[in-house]
Amino acid sequence: MESKLVQVIFFFLFVTVSSAYTPFQYFMHVQFWPAAECQAIGGVNKCHIMQPSHLQFTIHGLWPANKSSSSSLTCMGDAFNVNGMDDALKKELLSSWWDWKKGKHVKFWQREYDKHGKCSDNVFPKTEYFRKTLATYHDFDIAQILQKANIVPQPLQPKMSLYKLYSIDQITKAIESETGEHSVNIRCYQQMQKQSKKLIYLAKSPSAMMNLAITELTVIQAKQPVASFSAQTRKLYQV
Questions:
Q1: Mind giving me the DSSP string for 137-153?
Q2: Which pTM does this prediction carry?
Q3: Catalytic residue among 29, 37, 112, 178
Q4: Which of 33, 74, 148, 181 is most buried by its number of CB atoms within 10 A?
């Protein structure tokens, strides 16, 4: 069975809010790999990959949250209004925050704002929510951070045993060392049924692909815009 990555998200817990007027305690800044999402739905031809964003993490959103996962937020802010955005802001959003699946970028921003942004209306009102999200995104260049930690693409090899492996702990520490006191969480979604071992592919289209398992990460080069391959017979990568 070949297993593919659906989504990888990085969580940055970077703001703590204690005001009695806010329904949340902190924000999560969420980034993901759009090319990996494309791989999961059948390839790059079914996606709206925007150059040069295929070589970088892109924004999923800025999510107010509570420490208790069972806590739900009641958002009372105003609904999204694209007319409040100037052209410069729209252009910047399109460079790093876009709808990879349908290409309906404004609707994607609307969904994120109406679901999450309204909860922080008294902290980042209206377009300030988007500006803060962009500022945080630029502060945390994940690809650059990983490269600095020597977590880099490797040449294609004929078998899995020839690749250098990186633990998830290494990746987490590499990011946290650059983000100060901000917490990082790597969440992996994968298409596997009744599997005791997770095998996940993270595509960095078109020049590289990351193969992420429960405890190890391999970064390899890929010739195709979005690549996947069957796991070799290794205990860690049971299929």
A1: HHH--HHHHHHHTT---
A2: 0.68
A3: 112
A4: 33
